[in-house]
Structure formats: C-alpha cells, structure tokens
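Hi Y.,

Following your request, here is the sequence exactly as I used it, all 348 residues.
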Amino acid sequence: YPSEFLTQKLTEDNQIPVHLHISMSLQYVAGLKGNALVEFFHGNIAEVENEELRHLMWSSVLFYKSPNVEVMACVLLSTKAVYFLLDDSFIHADEHQSDFWNTENSECENSSFHLSCCFVLKLNDLQSVNVGLFDQYFRITGHSADHIVTCLTRDSYNTHTFIQQLMAVLSLLARTPSPEPVDKDFYSEFGSKNTGKMENYELIHSSRVKFIYPNEEEIGDLAFLVAEKMDGLTNLQPLDILLYVLAFQVNHVKGSAQNTSLLQPKTLILTSSDLFLFDEDYISYPLPEFAKEPPKRDKYQLADGRRIRDLDRVLMGYQTYPQALTFVFDDVQNQDLMQNLTLDHFGE
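Below is the corresponding structure, written out as tokens. Let me know if you'd prefer a different format.
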C-alpha cells in the first residue's frame, strides 16, 4: 500500500481551486506529491496505524455551529474517518467557536509555524448524507450539532466522486445488520400520511448510513418561491427553472493596493424570463433530527433579481475554469419600454 494508481490519483486531486485563497499551511499540503502526500497523512493526520487514505478533495466547507463562515478545507477520506484540514484563521473568524475548537496550541501563534486544525468525523459516527440540488453540494450528518458539515463543491463531478468513494469505504465497515424490514405497501413506503407530501428519495446503505437525494417537489417548491418574487408575471406563462448553480458574486474592493475582489457565495437561478441571485442556507435544511426549533433564517433569501428582457450584454472572460461572467443590464429598471409609445408617434 498504496498502489501506484491510487498515489497518482491522489496527486492529481491535490489541486487547489485557483479562485480561493488559502493559508501557508494548506499551501504546503497542496504542494505534496505521491508518496510524500501519503506519508504526510500517516505522520500528521491519521489516528489509526492501519487506516488507508482513499480520496482527497479540496472544497469550501460550512459547519452547523457557524453557518455564516465558509472556509477552505482539504477533505481527506480514509477507511476510518473523514478529515477536514482547515485554515487556522477559521478559529478566530467566529467568536462562537471557543467551545467548538480546542485552542491549546495558542502559544504557538507568534512562532514560525503555520498551524492547521483538523476536524475529524469518524465513519462509525456517520448517520446520513444529504445531496443538494443538482449535486452542487452535500451535507454529512453525525450524531450531534458538532458533527454536521456541508461541502460546497459547486461541482457535480466532485460531489459524485466523493459520494462513490464514501460508499465504497462504508462497505468495509463491520456493523451489525439492520433488522429485516416489514413488508409495506407502496403508499406507506413512499408517502407521509400526515402531510400528503412525498418524502425525499432515500438510499439506505449496507452500513445503515442514509443517502438522501432531493425529489421533484424540491424543484417545485423552489419554482413556487421564485414565482412569488416575480410580481404576478407567472399568471401569463408557466415558470420553469432552467438553471440552478452555486456561484460567487464578485465585489471589487475600492482603494486597495492590489485589485482585489471579494467573492460572496450566491445561488444563481435562471428562469425563462428572469435571473435571480439568492442567499441560500446550505447547512440547516433539512432539519437534523435533534433540532428543537427551525433555523433563524429561511433557506432562500432573495439578494437580486433582473428581467432577461433588460439584459443588454454578457461579457465573458478568457481565463480557464472558473469562468467569470458579467451581466450588463439596462438602467431602466422594472419598466416596459414599449408602454409609453402611443399612436400619435405614428401619425401624419
């Protein structure tokens, strides 16, 4: 161990997304190749001697206890646990983290060491995995609020690959088998008699971990929410969501020495008539079983919305992925340009 194929794959996956900034400690990890990467894992991260590193992924992550702080992480999947190698600055980014993180190493702050903290979620503690719409993100849920993490991959391929690797690793776990299910008819199996709504599509793995995928109703609920923001235009035409994608809105910082820009996470939704930007809560929904009250904010909050007919042009950058798009809209907002024309204009 490890095979040459796996070593090569880990090296290929060890690529930081170019648009996200990371600390010196994580840059060091990103520079490791092949066997050096495996040795680093066993020497610094692995908790058990005989565990194997199976998959590596760079992703933004959110924690249930701090839903407003998105942080870059190196996600390492082994045969025993999922490790989230985090930027040390994350501890100081949120004042509510004092009880969440163990800060014993604070005396090292002024030394030349670059610290990273590692959040560990053991596979035996894993209860469910919720996959987001169109595989743009997924949420891993353990047995408490401290053990809920969302990975914002913003990439269906990365999500799919991680889920496949996680299922393969979970198959190696020795867990007691579930009791034999009682035969149920179709309606009691797939429907909730209390609400009349179809439940989300669930796949129960042999390790008893639930993999929960969104069903068609989630798109319907989202379409209804978007329709509410469109000032009654939906009476004229059916509303179809053409595109749902997790993106960043670029805000340039004025007066800075370098031409820096802040990237604000946004959910972009395109319909046949409008373009919307939403602030979405990726971590709180669906509610975990131990949650005693609903989250303080809605899942979707409208940040901006424009009509496609007001779109003047779209500017595309020539850089490689991720692509930057600039949407330029007309200054005249919420006005139909044709409404002021009368027959007098076409008279003699």
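The domain at 217-329 is CATH 2.30.29 (PH-domain like).

Thanks again,
Q.
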